[in-house]
Amino acid sequence: MGEKLGYEEFIKKAIVTLRRPGYRGIHSVYSGFNEAFRKYFPGDDPVKVTTQLAKEGKLVVRPVKGGVMLYLPEDVTGGRMSGEEALKKMGLV
Fold it and tell me: 62 burial class (0-12, 13-18, 19+ CB within 10 angstroms)?
């Protein structure tokens, strides 16, 4: 199998290979990611690792029903819009 991947490499590989056609990210539970992570890194918590990588800007994590969606930062278009920007776009300011 070769040398073991680090957390970041493993997660990036998982996102690229497990996502379904037409989708940019993977569901942490339904894709099998959490289970695969625990088997590859016994004793490590995928939630703690993905949360830390998201804080470092190496991963984007978005909460969804039943878990979270994991994305590569370059695959996420746009960002969170401020309230002021939203009002301007709505034509209310």
Answer: exposed
The arrangement of strands across the sheet holding 60-64 comes to: 26-27, 67-71, 60-64
Residue 88 is predicted with a pLDDT of: 87
- Domain positions in the chain are 7-90
Per the CB < 8 A criterion, the answer to whether 70 and 60 are in contact is yes
Structure confidence by residue, pLDDT tens digits, 8-67: 999 999 999 999 999 999 999 999 999 999 999 999 999 999 999 999 999 999 999 999
What's the CATH fold of domain 7-90?
Arc Repressor Mutant, subunit A (1.10.10)
**Angle in degrees, CA 35, 36, 40, rounded to 5:** 120
Cβ(67)–Cβ(27) below 8 Å: yes
pLDDT beyond 80 at 81: no
Residue with tokens 């690229």: 16
